[in-house]
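chain below, 192 aa
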Amino acid sequence: MNTDETFQSSDSHAQSYTRTAVAMHWLLGMALVGMFAVGYYMEDLPLSPAKLQLFNWHKWAGICLLTLSVLRLLWRITHRPPPLPADIQNDMPAWQHHAHYLTQYSMYGLFFLVPLVGWAYSSAAGFPVVVFGVLPLPDFVPANEALAELLKAWHEGTAMALAILILLHVAAAIKHQWVDKHALLQRMWPRR
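prediction:
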């Protein structure tokens, strides 16, 4: 694979991800923030047509995020990301390297697990997922009230775990950018 196709170097310090990788990163990030906000907001609403509509939108968005996650993973597999610059690698203690990879792989796993568990929860609760109101998806599991309660807790728990990992990811990026002065954000910043 030609490294010129994988990343472009704006200077010797920061090697950027491809435009496609940057676009998918920020699109997924903003969509996840929206999903967390809507999920949190609708949880305590009284049962109403508005709440049911928000649940439908949440499910549609979850399926779209699952699709985007598949595309992002395929892009990542076929387009090797740029390596961490040498100064960052040299400055990071071993535990930070391990935390970096553990957080990254855990987030990728949760990109898939959260919407899949949500889909299973909806199926177990007896509410099929019909994307955009026109594309019915098969039920993941049969309707079962006890299973629905279990899956609801798993969906909420995995979503909370993903939110925590995203906050750690953001905190680490901020630390590298402004505390360690590594200019790390330029690698994932949209370019003209």
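The domain at 11-188 is CATH 1.20.950 (Fumarate Reductase Cytochrome B subunit). The beta strands are 8-9, 15-16, 130-131, 135-136.
thats it, cya
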